[in-house]
Design brief:
The chain is an alpha/beta fold and 216 residues long. The protein has helices at 11-19, 33-43, 67-77, 87-91, 93-97, 109-115, 127-142, 154-162, 173-189, 194-206, and strands at 3-5, 24-27, 79-84, 104-107, 146-149, 167-168.
Length: 216
């Protein structure tokens, strides 16, 4: 599946992504149920929405042979994911979750924490932020929607998966890749740089205790 994260949920941006063959869109900075309804109308073909029909590009990504088959499958096959990461979205999460056509409520815990006055500064999630995350999960379950959350380690991902989240990340690439490469290089050098071995181990273990979304 090819997913596309968008900087702003403007019509031109995400319609261009869908018309290029994206299987889903992740839309940040949503505020109200009206925002969600406008998003669905723009992303879905009639009768569910108002998306224009005619791009020659997306069919190949779905394994179908014709634009007609794509038209028939797209409304049910495309994922529409909204990020709940603002104070307003949290206040309106029940109404947002009720919008037909929204498939996933995705939690951005760092931005959500910032926006409700409880930023994650030392790796500790404030109790009120935990309550906010639980509220989003409950709203999704009550409206038969899936949930996702950005995690910074495998342990954290397991914790949220056990809570019922359907989508979890397990690491940030800009932390995981350097940690892996450091470990691999240390192993390749062997005992010649035994001291560096501890550095490599530290890099790997540090990924499990990130202080921010990118470990800084």
């Amino acid at each position: 599946m090819t997913g596309v994260a968008l900087l702003r949920h403007t019509l031109a941006t995400f319609i261009g992504a869908l018309d290029s063959g994206a299987h889903g869109i992740i839309v940040p900075l949503l505020y109200t149920a009206e925002d969600a309804e406008k998003l669905v109308k723009s992303a879905k073909f009639p009768p569910k929405g108002q998306r224009g029909y005619g791009s020659p590009f997306p069919m190949g990504g779905f394994g179908v042979q014709s634009s007609t088959e794509y038209l028939q499958q797209a409304n049910d096959g495309l994922l529409t994911i909204v990020q709940i990461e603002t104070k307003e979205a949290l206040q309106n999460v029940d109404a947002i979750a009720k919008v037909d056509g929204i498939d996933v409520l995705f939690v951005g815990p760092f931005d959500l924490g910032n926006n409700i006055g409880h930023p994650i500064l030392d790796g500790t999630v404030h109790e009120e932020l935990k309550v906010a995350i639980a509220k989003i999960q409950t709203a999704a379950k009550e409206n038969k929607k899936s949930t996702g959350i950005y995690c910074t380690s495998g342990d954290q991902a397991r914790e949220y998966a056990d809570q019922g989240f359907n989508m979890v990340s397990v690491a940030a690439d800009m932390i995981a890749l350097p940690a892996y490469l450091t470990s691999a290089l240390t192993s390749a050098k062997g005992s010649y740089v035994h001291g560096a071995l501890n550095l490599g181990k530290g890099a790997v273990s540090g990924a499990a205790n990130m202080l921010g979304p990118y470990g800084k």
